[in-house]
DNA sequence: TTGAAAGCGCTAACAT
DNA sequence: ATGTTAGCGCTTTCAA
C-alpha cells in the first residue's frame, strides 16, 4: 500500500493542476475542495477527492502562503535566556495544533534587539501573529510596538494587564496562595520564601500570593524570611543558606521555582537536615526535575504545553475571525503533593 | 533610528520591485545583488544596496522557496518519545545557524508512521533534507527509504554504519570506556552498569565501552552487574535497587544516562548509603539535571546543541555542493567530574 | 553586465 | 455551482 505521493513523469510532486486535469475540473474547483469553501456539488467534490487520493496530492504550503492573504504564519519568539526545556515544551504544544489551525509556525530568536528591531524582524518574517513567552510577555514597549503594526501577539504568563492584548496564564498569585495555605495547614508558621527573577513578573505575583496567604492567616510576612533568587539553581543555593542561617530557622521553604527548591534540598542535605522530617521544601512549575530528585518535590504544576497550544488557538481565532469571546485564557494549575512536605518537627500534636 | 521596514503607500512590505524602481534597475539585477550572483558592476551593486538599505528591504523567504529550486527547506523530524529538553537543545542548535546557511527549518513530528508514510510526509513538506535524532537515526528502513527518494538525511548519534549516509556523533563507546577507566583508576573493582533503552543503539555502544574497559583491566563484566533500564528515572530506581541488593554490592554505579544516575542516587539516599563516600554514581549526557541534584553528578558531556548545528552545516553542504569531504562528523565529549564520584570505601590506601 | 519574459503552485476577485 | 483572469514576490531561463 503506497502512501507515497505519485510523481509526474518529470519527477515532481503532483500539483493542483494535475489533480484538476485528472478530475476533469478547473484548478479553482480543486482549490475549493481543498479549502472546504463555498459550494461544490457533492458529485464534483467526490471526483476531486478521488483524484487527490489517487495522486496522493498535498497542497504546497509555500505556494499557499505566497498566494493567500498570508495570514497563516505565526512566530514563536524567544530569548536565549529561556531554558531549552521550557522552550521545548512550548514548541511541542504549539506544533501540536499548528496544523489543525492551518498555521505555519516559525521559531525566532530575538536577542538584545530593541522593541523596534524585533518588530522589524517579525515583519520581515512575514508573520501575522506572535507568541511571547516570558520574559518577552512583560515587555510593554514590545507589545505596544507590535500592536501599532497590527501584529497580533499573545502573551504567555504575563502580568494581568488592562489593555486588550491576548493572554494565556495560570493564576500565579492564587497558586502561590494555595501552596502557602497548604504549608500553613500542615502546621508551619515560619515559612521562608525564595523569590524568582525580578525580570519575570510572575515572580512578583507568586510573592504576592505568598504574602496574602501569610497575612490572611495572621502570620507575618517579614522581609527577613523573603530572600532574593533568580530562578537559577545557583541562586537557590545561596538563598537557602541565608534562610537556614536565620536565628529562627524556617520549618518550610517555598521556592519560586523547582530549580531553586532543588537547591534548597541540596543545602539541607549538606547540613544533615532531613527533608521533609525537619524541613519542608516546595517549588513551583513541576518541571521534570521535580520527579528526579530525592525526595521528590511538592510543587505547582504549570501546564506549559497546554499554554502554547491555547496561545495558538487564540491567535488562529484572532487572525481569522478577527476576535474572540475571551482574550484572556486562564488555565488550571495543580498543587502536586510529593515527598518533600510534611508537618513541622517538634510540635506536639495536641495539648502542651 | 528606525530599523523598521518602510511600507509602500498601500501598507505592504517593500518588494524586490520597489527596490528595483528606487535603484533604477531591473528586478533581476536586484535579485543578483541579493544572491551575490554572477557579475554586477560595483556601481550598480552599490546603488542597489543603498536602495535596499533605504527601504529596509528583506526578501520574502516564501516567494523564494516557491520560485527557486526549493533547496532551502530542511526538517527536524522527531517522535513524541523524545524529551522536550533534548528536542529543545537540538532545536536551538539547528536554529542557530539555519539562517547562516540560508536554510529554512521546519519541525515535524512523525509518530507511529511507517517509513513510507514518513517519506511521504517529508515530500509533502517540500523539504530536501532531514535531521534524524535518536531513535529515528537508527531506523534503517527509514534511512534507506529517504535515500531512495534522494532526500538527504543526517543522523544524529546513530550507530556507526557502512553506507554513505551522513552522521554526527560522539564516540559513545569510547566515552563509556573512559568513564569506566576513570572509575577503575579511582580504585573501583565492583562496578554496576545500568543499561539504556535498547531501542536506542547508543545504549549498546555505551555498554560495549564499559565491557571493554572492564576486560582491558582484567575485571569481569559479569552479567549480574549489568542491569536493564530504559533511560527513564523510574527504570533507574528499579535498576539501582537490583544492584544494591546484590550479595556483593558494587562500589560504583555507571548509569547510561543522567536520569537513571539521579535515580540511583535517590535509592542510595533512601538506604542511607552516602554518595560518594560509600557509593560512586555517574551518568551520561550532562543534562541540566546533573547540576541540580546533590551531590552533583559526574557525567559525560554530550554537546547536543553543537550536534544539530553541525547537522545543519552538513545538510547545507550536501544540498548545495552536493557532497562533503567528511560525511561522518565526530564531536568531542568531555568527562565532567563533579561530586558524585570518589575512591571506594574500606580500601586501605597501602599495604594490608 | 544587464534586462525581459515566463513561470513556481496556489488563491482572490470577478465572471458565468 | 464552476470557470477565468490575475496576480503573490521571487528566480530561472534566454536574449540583448
Plain-language structure description:
The structure is a homodimer of 352-residue chains. In chain A, the strands form 3 sheets. The first copy, chain A, has a 6-stranded parallel β-sheet, sandwiched between helices. A 4-stranded parallel β-sheet of chain A has the order 7-6-8-9. In chain A, helix 5 packs across helix 12, helix 6 crosses helix 7 and helix 10 packs across helix 11. With 352 residues, chain A is an alpha/beta fold. The longest helix of chain A is centred in the last third of the chain and has 17 residues, at 304-320. Chain A folds into 3 domains: 1-29, no CATH class; 68-170 and 304-321, Rossmann fold (3-Layer(aba) Sandwich); 172-301, Rossmann fold, CATH 3.40.50.2300. The radius of gyration of chain A is 26 Å and the shape is elongated. Helices cover 41% and strands 14% of the residues of chain A. Chain A contains 12 helices and 12 strands. Chains A and B meet through helix 4, helix 5, strand 2, helix 6 and helix 11 of A and helix 4, helix 5, strand 2, helix 6 and helix 11 of B. Chain A binds a DNA duplex (16 and 16 nucleotides) through helix 2 and helix 4.
